[in-house]
Design goal:
CATH topology of the largest domain: TIM Barrel
Strand content: 15-25%
Largest sheet: 8 strands, mixed
CATH superfamily of the largest domain: Metal-dependent hydrolases
Bound molecules: N-(iminomethyl)-L-glutamic acid, fe (iii) ion
Family: Belongs to the metallo-dependent hydrolases superfamily. HutI family.
Function: Catalyzes the hydrolytic cleavage of the carbon-nitrogen bond in imidazolone-5-propanoate to yield N-formimidoyl-L-glutamate. It is the third step in the universal histidine degradation pathway.
Helix content: 25-40%
GO molecular function: imidazolonepropionase activity; iron ion binding; zinc ion binding
Distance between the termini: 32 Å
Number of strands: 16
Structural class: alpha/beta
Enzyme class: hydrolase
CATH architecture of the largest domain: Alpha-Beta Barrel
Catalytic activity: 4-imidazolone-5-propanoate + H2O = N-formimidoyl-L-glutamate
């Protein structure tokens, strides 16, 4: 008698996302799992026996669609306070760059984050992660970057890890010490990068860092400073990613590709040379339509070139208090379709399999035997609806590693 599966859902359709294109649709499907991994993803009619004889727990889904669990591969969801007042300033005409240069922006969240102890930071951040989970996210990337000193960065990364443990979602942490120059280093960006490069090995040694990011921009760091951070990451064998070419073309995409980076994120101003470098390096383009939407940007990422050159496009929330106070990855998919003209299928691939690649993860993002049993059962009659509805609650259940989370 073979070992029973832990769980089996029957009677829903599957969007497996197998293959390079299409939904990988299986109508009247069945999904079984054991020990946190998928063991069967196919037609109910092809099950190797009666459901009750195959699994400990059988759920009759009664319709709907099952997709891979969503992967939010770019968030800054751990932070103190909020920036609603800045939102109002921008509505009255101030630009993001002007606000940043006058001491607001990222640095104002740094003040609020430094003022919060670990418990308070956890309590403020947990509901944001819970909201992302409630709309289908089973993997979250969370960046540091609002502490900008050793203790503050450590506190953020510890809170990120705790969020994963307390919600059951898989959290991948990214060290973003090079997010902005903190006030105590004003005018001394080089010295600040020295400090960032010293903190990184310590935080990595504490098991807090899965990847390294930087903000390469006129109001961020220069390519040479970014390189220094990437060299420090390389010395530790850590993968890199980059906030690249968001507000201007600083050659960021090509730079991160040169380091074999996992992803170049934002990429509105990325040049043809940058796209070609990403294609060669296998660097994923992470599209962040929430920031584009909130900042009222008009310059579109080079979508046609990404498609032509086979650069995978991921979609993420960029959940942060300044440019993208966005608490639903499905909503980011919707914005990617309306602003960037992604197809709903591209948006779903972007929020699953391509997003997993942007985190260096190959064990999720597709419904396939052997991969993690991360999946969402949606109350929809076609998977294109996921990128179609604005808001609403379409989730019937969310499983990560075979455990039901909501
Ligand atoms: O991805 N651009 C840099 N980082 C964030 C914004 C952070 C903030 O304004 O607090 C982004 O858009
Ligand atoms: Fe960001």
């Amino acid at each position: 008698m073979p070992e029973l599966w832990d769980g089996l859902v029957v009677g829903a359709s599957l969007a497996t996302l197998e293959g390079d294109a299409g939904w990988g649709a299986i109508e009247d499907g069945a999904l079984g799992w054991r020990d946190g991994r998928i063991v069967f993803a196919g037609r109910r009619a092809d099950l190797p026996g009666e459901p009750e004889r195959l699994a400990d727990a059988v759920v009759e889904a009664g319709g709907g669609w099952i997709t891979p669990g969503l992967v939010d591969c770019h968030t800054h969801l751990v932070f103190g306070g909020h920036r609603a007042a800045e939102f109002e300033q921008r509505l009255q005409g101030a630009s993001y760059e002007e606000i940043a240069r006058s001491g607001g922006g990222i640095v104002s969240t740094v003040r609020a984050t430094r003022a919060a102890d670990e418990e308070s930071l956890f309590a403020q951040s947990l509901p944001r992660a819970r909201a992302l989970l409630a709309d289908g996210a089973t993997t979250l990337e969370i960046k540091s970057g609002y502490g900008l000193d050793l203790d503050g960065e450590r506190r953020m990364l510890r809170v990120a890890r705790r969020i994963g443990q307390s919600l059951g979602v898989d959290v991948r942490t990214t060290f973003l010490g090079a997010h902005a120059v903190p006030p105590e280093f004003a005018g001394r960006a080089e010295a600040y990068i020295d400090a960032v490069c010293q903190w990184l090995p310590r935080l990595h040694g504490e098991g807090l860092v899965d990847a390294v990011d930087a903000f390469a921009e006129r109001i961020g760091f220069t390519p040479a400073q970014t390189r220094r951070v990437f060299e420090a990451a390389r010395a530790l064998g850590l993968p890199v990613k980059l906030h690249a070419d968001q507000l201007s073309d600083g050659g960021g995409a090509a730079l991160v590709a040169e380091y074999g980076g996992l992803s170049a994120d934002h990429v509105e101003y990325t040049s043809s040379a940058g796209v070609a470098a990403m294609a060669r390096a296998g660097t994923v383009a992470v599209l962040l339509p929430g920031a584009f939407h909130v900042l009222g940007e008009t310059r579109l990422p080079p979508l046609a070139e990404f498609r032509a050159q086979g650069v995978p496009m991921a979609v993420a929330t960029d959940c942060n208090p300044g440019t993208s106070p966005l608490l639903s990855l499905r909503q980011a998919m919707q914005l990617a379709c309306t602003h960037f003209r992604l197809t709903p299928e591209e948006a779903l691939r972007g929020a699953t399999v391509h997003a997993a690649r942007a985190l260096g993860l190959h064990d999720r993002g597709i419904l396939r035997p052997g991969l993690r049993a991360d999946f969402v059962h949606w109350d929809v009659s076609h998977p294109a609806e996921l990128a179609y509805w604005l808001g609403g609650n379409l989730v019937r259940s969310v499983h990560a590693g075979g455990q039901r989370l909501c």
